[in-house]
Amino acid sequence: MKLNKKLILPILLLPAWYIIYHFLQPLADWFIDTALKLEKGEHLTEALRFFIFEVPKVLMLLALIIFFVGIIRSYFSPERTRKVLEGKSTFTGNVLASMLGIVTPFCSCSAIPLFLGFVESGVPLGVTFSFLIAAPMINEIAVILLFGMFGWKVATIYVLTGLAIAITAGYIIGKLKLEHWVQEWVYTTKIGHSEDDEEKIKLSGRIRLGYEAVKEIVGKVWVYVILGIAVGAGAHGYVPEDFMAALMGKSAWYSVPLSILIGIPLYSNAAGIIPIVSVLIEKGASLGTSLAFMMAVIGLSLPEMIILKKVLKLPLILTFIGIVATGILIVGYLFNFLF
User: For the chain, which residues make up each domain, given as ranges?
Assistant: First the structure.
């Protein structure tokens, strides 16, 4: 059986990827200590070491996992997702919508067309919100970076708690019957649905979609990656540990709600915020507080709230923020208690 040419390239690239990734730390140390001959332990030296190591590490992790997620996503178009959620209600719909939110393409700019499509199809409001919460909060970039920086246990708990927030928040919103807080024009709008491409895509086509996903997503977020790591590098080299421990440590009872309040108005994505979270933890911030800050930035971003204002009335937006923020608050304290 002959291998397709498009299958050969990934097979050849994977060993090369592993070798390069394995030697990133020694290469970074050689460059700092031998090539540049910088003195170990100095603020600038350690900040540069962090930056030079983390940038290729994060970008390589993103490229690898986004490639495979891109292939998985080829099975879940937005139209197919909408069809799967049609007719689903109450808790089952919330669970299914939250799980689909992890693997389906979503960004703030697509919030309105997705919302309109779901409402027009008869998807309950609570189920729709479960999807809208899970999709940005538990995206592949967040999971990849958490896995790379903190290990599989933290990444797994993050996914599970994120799902719990999305499921619970959507369920509560559904039970509250808040459809009257959706803008009236939403229920009278008819949007065209493109026919779902049901023909089977060949594996070579899905691999091509994987490459396109890498090109598109990494092309969009690499700037955030570098900026986030640059901020993290500065904190790594210069911020005193006792300062972050006092502000965001376990002993500060107010640290979790404060981190959520700070995170909501900020605009970033997982690629930009997780490297900063990594350094916050290294400098003494507790894991729960740091993750609460990250989830607030990603899941309750101000730009998304502004976009959703076009289809939701203010009381529903505030209810949404309040329920999700409460869930994040619980997760923050839970992580602080467990770790």
Answer: 78-186
